[in-house]
Here is the input.
Amino acid sequence: MAEQGTYSAWDHIRSFLSMPVFFLLLTVCTLVILPFFLFSPKRISNFVVEKVAPFIAKPTLAVLGVSLRVRKHADEIKTPAVYIINHSSTLDMLTLLAMGLPRIRFVAKWQFQYNPLFFIIGRLTGQVFIRREKSEKAIQTLQNVVKRIKRDRLSLMMAPEGTRKHEGIIGPFKKGPFRMAIELGYPIVPIYFEGNRELSSGKFLVTHRGTCTAHIHPPIDTSGWTQGNIDEQIANVRSLYLDWAGVKE
Here is the structure.
């Protein structure tokens, strides 16, 4: 693989071609599934995140020359959970969608809604959009969705770092995902993306050919977590990511 940050002409060509593929598939799928929301919105919402999202993301990754492997380090997770990821690459969105995790809802930045297709699908499927630059408003948005998430036995996908633009391989962890786990009574399920950052760490989706791996680790019980010990618990979870990334602090 070429040196990180140094991309060949073919890397740029594949990356340029991947965007029309992604948006063509997204447009076609949006037009096809929209009528079905009139009859069974909840069932269709889960079908979209579990089946349609991988149908869009996997061909896009193939055009990019990226192969995704999923390694499960625990038995099948049968209960709702708050899934968290390390976020440092433009590839993260595609690899998340390609995994097709069951009954998942994504917590995404507000700006995704500026694309009308993301807005339509995101709103219809109950994804959660937050203004990350306004932390209090973001927390209020998350608190507002707790009742719906628990009622429908849905899982959440969140990035504790908040953004991929952070110093170091693993950035500081914000409290949002962990507060949500406490309020929901859900375990935390850490997912560690290996290779995403090395393949594509730039501002735009330009990537080397290669393989990335999603490591799904065992659930972390949060039943003993409180607002009083949350800082310690967050530090413990972040230390796992530092170990997986081979970082010493």
Summary: The beta strands are 66-72, 82-85, 104-109, 128-130, 155-158, 188-194, 210-216. The chain has one domain: 9-245.
